[in-house]
Design a protein that fits this description.
3-stranded antiparallel beta sheet, single chain, 365 residues, alpha/beta, TIM Barrel, 9-stranded mixed beta sheet, globular
């Protein structure tokens, strides 16, 4: 079954670590975007019934309820089994939570990133652990108990001790799902650009070493497992039955349709994407064009490895894949980055930390 992703790329502030196509825009621009997004959804030809809907961003929890309802009404709903809304802590109110529940939203992903005040303030975030606690309770009171909490390992000033403070809070909050991302330096975020240039703004001079980031990640894996929150994908952990059905589609090669700025789509054979700047998207939205004309075909065997191997369950290569990638498989097994489990292949604990090196073995091989 397929999924739907809707992008709402607006935020109340741009966090220093953020490398997404999102930003702070004027209210008129937001209203213009909402109208363009509604037009894109209205003219889409639905060739299948979606099973999951994911509203991401940006901060879609800031989306006006009327606009949110209009977008959701444009998506066939009879087969939906999971509807996720990304939220920034501090944006959940009783009125919003009640409205989200009425609209059928049954899963919320909170972009917490840290539960330590000093770390949060360096990134520009304004919430506290207590705000997260209270908003999770509010969501649960409205019938939305399936909550994901995002954490980032490698924020400026982060230490083993402060990381443990965040993990201890996870133990108190008892979320159904946790995502743990290892911060990577890239020029698409202000913090990443500053670190690349050797500067100190945004706490760039306080970034932990790669070794410490790996240690923090592994500490999270162990701690979450002790809570019954198991890793099922490199960055994602869940209690049994609470894995993200939508995100599993990405790693299992199932189709999905994306709407809005920088949204990506996949039909099982080809990939395509919307423009990643607001002005380009708004210009395109005024035209009745099928973006699939710019679609690019995938190599399904390569994708099976560099997408599927992200899953803890690993993959079962086909006979053709075993022949094509035999050398790459043997190298990765020999270096201890991949392991065999009967007919399946999966990343080792060390392979998870060096996953990009493993995936590179199977591209253009």
């Amino acid at each position: 079954m397929a999924g739907v992703y809707i992008s709402y790329p607006f935020c109340s502030q741009k966090c220093t670590y953020c490398n997404f196509a999102s930003d702070v825009f004027s209210a008129p621009k937001q209203r213009e975007y909402e109208a363009a997004l509604a037009r894109e959804l209205a003219r889409h030809r639905w060739e299948w019934e979606p099973e999951t809907l994911y509203l991401g961003g940006g901060t879609p929890s800031l989306m006006p309820l009327e606009a949110l309802a209009q977008c959701m009404a444009a998506v066939p709903a009879s087969g939906l089994s999971e509807i996720t809304l990304e939220c920034a802590p501090g944006t959940v109110t009783p009125a919003r939570a009640e409205a989200w529940a009425r609209l059928g939203i049954d899963r919320v992903s909170l972009g917490v990133q840290s539960l330590v005040v000093d770390e949060l303030r360096r990134t520009g975030r304004r919430h506290t652990a207590e705000i997260v606690r209270d908003e999770m309770a509010l969501l649960a009171s409205c019938g939305i108990a399936n909550v994901n909490v995002d954490l980032i390992a490698g924020l400026p000033g982060q230490t083993a001790s402060s990381w443990n403070q965040s993990l201890e809070w996870i133990g108190r909050l008892e979320p159904a799902h946790v995502s743990v991302y290892m911060f990577e330096i890239d020029e698409d975020s202000r913090l990443g650009r500053e670190a690349t240039l050797g500067g100190v703004r945004y706490g760039a001079g306080l970034l932990p070493s790669d070794d410490l980031v790996a240690d923090l990640y592994e500490a999270a894996v162990s701690f979450l497992a002790s809570l019954g929150i198991a890793r099922y994908e490199i960055s994602n952990f869940a209690r049994p039955g609470f894995e993200s059905r939508h995100n599993l589609k990405y790693w299992r090669g199932e189709p999905y349709a994306g709407f809005g700025m920088d949204a990506h789509s996949f039909d099982g054979v080809r990939r395509w994407s919307n423009p990643d700047t607001l002005d380009e998207y708004l210009a395109l939205a005024g035209q009745d064009r099928d973006l699939r004309e710019k679609a690019s075909a995938i190599d399904p065997e390569e994708e099976h490895f560099f997408v599927g191997l992200r899953l803890a369950e690993g993959i079962e290569p086909t006979p053709a894949e075993r022949t094509r990638f035999s050398s790459a498989i043997e190298r990765s097994v020999g270096t201890g980055l991949l392991e065999r489990d009967g007919a399946r292949l999966r990343l080792t604990a060390r392979g998870v930390l060096l996953s990009n090196e493993v995936f590179a073995e199977f591209i253009h091989a």
